[in-house]
Write a structure and sequence with these properties.
Blueprint (H helix, E strand, L loop, with lengths): L1 H17 L5 E6 L7 H11 L4 E6 L2 H16 L34 H12 L16 H12 L7 E5 L9 H8 L9 H9 L3 E6 L8 H10 L3 E3 L1
Parallel strand pairs: 1-2, 3-4, 4-5
Helix pairs in contact: 3-6, 4-5, 6-7
Length: 230
């Protein structure tokens, strides 16, 4: 029986090694006093590895919640780095969380765009909110102004669409995923904050739907002095 258990653990370790470069989501039952020592050793070794989401659960309901949250983040990823194939003739890779490209020019809103540019570009202004009824063109205005402001940000502009994020607690993971960060769980904030510690403009579209995540924005602004959020 011990040989069979050892073989199973060896197989798990092989699968883990083969998953390099993929999203690694580990859910570990706690407490588990009867856990095989070799398995416990493997889990302890994995726990602190970079790029691994290592989360503990105590019962089936908690496991379901963790899995649902992680799947929601993974399924909501839209903006990933697109790399040319070997030997291809494509140009530069598309930036992660790039501004969308409008199909037509913006007409008749030059005054509004200029006002937004002036506000976001002002010294000391780090958080800007565009308000208005649905369908009034807030996203189109934001994209146009952000595109014009891009030269003023050494590390560029990142656009994050939050319309498909169902709850505020999923916002950190959604932002990290759309920025191309392979992280979640306990290391989510510790990986996200250093990434944003740049001269960067972060455009969060449809944030009003997950406004309960406002404390996250305060945390990011407090720890990343070069960051502006819109």
């Amino acid at each position: 029986m011990r040989d069979a258990v050892a073989t199973q653990i060896s197989g798990l370790e092989d699968e883990y090694l083969l998953s390099a470069g993929l999203s690694r989501l580990l859910y570990v039952k706690t407490p588990a006093p009867g856990r095989e020592p070799r398995l416990a050793e493997l889990l302890a070794r994995i726990e602190n590895e970079a790029g691994v989401s290592y989360q503990r659960f105590t019962d089936a309901a908690e496991l379901q919640r963790l899995v649902e949250n992680d799947l929601a983040v993974l399924l909501s990823e839209r903006f990933r780095v697109t790399r040319p194939q070997d030997g291809g003739t494509r140009g530069d890779a598309v930036p992660v969380a790039a501004l969308p490209v409008p199909p037509t020019p913006l007409v008749g809103r030059e005054q509004e765009v200029a006002a937004v540019e002036a506000l976001v570009g002002s010294e000391g202004v780090r958080l800007v909110t565009l308000t208005g009824p649905g369908g009034s063109g807030k996203t189109r205005l934001a994209v146009e102004a952000a595109g014009r402001l891009r030269p003023g940000f050494a590390d560029g502009v990142r656009y994050i669409e939050l319309a498909s994020v169902p709850s505020a607690d999923l916002v950190p993971g959604a932002i990290a995923a759309r920025l191309g960060l392979n992280t979640s769980g306990a290391r989510l904030r510790t990986d996200l904050v250093p990434y944003l510690r740049k001269r960067l403009l972060l455009v969060l579209d449809n944030f009003e739907q997950v406004a309960e995540a406002a404390p996250l924005l305060a945390e990011l602004l407090a720890t990343a002095p070069g960051l502006k959020i819109w």
